[in-house]
Write a structure and sequence with these properties.
This protein is an alpha/beta fold and 327 residues long. Helix content is 29%, strand content 19%. The protein starts with a strand and ends with a helix.
Length: 327
């Protein structure tokens, strides 16, 4: 079991399999993109399998596969097949933009990997293009509804962007009327490759909630796990639910149970913190499992109390892009 220096159990790994993405969302990176890692600097599938096995044997019970776009990584299914065989791993989930997932949907279902988060910030095709700078809306739409219809546990993650998609918030909530889906609204964060900076938000989680409550005054709050980053709600009688994630306000830090490993092996103990160490070299030197685990334990033992403290300590953290951090 991993216990940090604030007595928080760390049992959730967010493992980035690539920093590459086929979209260019304007809140994530500049139009020209960012400098992606050289292939030799990315963890191999075998290295990720070994690391996952070590962490699962030491108390990690949930792994979320992130990117970049995970399905842009060659042989991603080899890793997912391996993870699905780990007896002590209770939950495997994936965050994707749903542009490349179609060939893998049936096998994911057969493997029991049913938790899929789809990043989608617009329901209007023209607006989708303006945000992502790519013409992939119809592909995403088809794949999203295929996932829902096939019975996956689908969450739609929508970053609320002032001046871009706030007038679609209610339309997103209406997706939950007939669909078994959870739509989650995230506050914008300044991890955009230096494309934009800000110190406060006009559309924080409180304003998003007030906006929704004006349209649906009878919404009810749902129970969530203590470590959840989202507060969940439901319009009475509707099939799905919606949530709010205060990703910039950071009200959930006190119960944080997450550890990130980036695609190049950086160990990141807080989204707003610089990497504590890198595991790529010791993995490639074929060091013992205990030495690899000790590096992780050292990182966990030096976590900051919350994201605000991490931001104060970190230098130039907002010059990073979310695709390089690992989501």
């Amino acid at each position: 079991m991993l216990i940090d220096n604030h007595n928080r159990e760390v049992n959730y790994l967010r493992l980035a399999v690539t920093d590459r993405c086929n979209l260019r969302c304007n809140y994530c990176m500049p139009a020209e993109g960012i400098q992606f890692s050289e292939n030799d600097n990315l963890l191999t599938i075998e290295e990720m399998k070994r690391l996952a096995q070590i962490l699962v044997s030491n108390g990690v019970s949930k792994i979320r596969i992130t990117g970049g776009e995970p399905f842009a990584r060659k042989n991603i299914m080899e890793l997912l097949r391996f993870l699905s065989e780990l007896d002590d791993l209770k939950s495997i989930s994936i965050t994707t933009n749903a542009t490349l997932i179609k060939p893998y949907i049936n096998e994911l279902y057969e493997l029991g990997i049913r938790h899929i988060n789809v990043s989608l910030d617009a329901l209007d095709e023209d607006r989708f293009f303006k945000i992502t700078r790519r013409n992939s809306f119809q592909i995403v739409k088809r794949n999203l509804f295929t996932l829902i219809e096939k019975g996956f546990n689908v969450r739609v993650n929508c970053v609320v962007l002032e001046g871009q998609n706030v007038d679609e918030i209610i339309s997103f909530v209406k997706l939950t009327e007939h669909g078994n889906v959870c739509v989650r609204f995230l506050e914008e964060m300044p991890f955009n490759g230096g494309n934009k900076t800000f110190t406060k938000l006009k559309w924080d989680y409180k304003r998003i909630f007030q906006h929704i409550e004006t349209e649906f005054p009878l919404i009810k709050q749902l129970p969530v796990e203590r470590s959840s980053t989202a507060s969940l709600y439901k319009v009475p009688g509707w099939k799905g639910s919606f949530g709010l994630i205060p990703s910039f306000s950071r009200t959930f830090c006190g119960t944080c149970n997450r550890l990130r490993v980036s695609a190049n092996g950086d160990v990141i103990t807080c989204l707003y913190a610089n990497a504590y160490t890198n595991l790529r070299t010791i993995l490639r030197e074929n060091k013992s499992d205990s030495l690899i685990m000790q590096s992780v334990l050292d990182a966990v033992a030096n976590r900051v109390a919350n994201g605000h403290e991490a931001e104060l300590r970190s230098k130039s953290i907002f010059k990073n892009s979310m695709t390089s951090i690992g989501g």
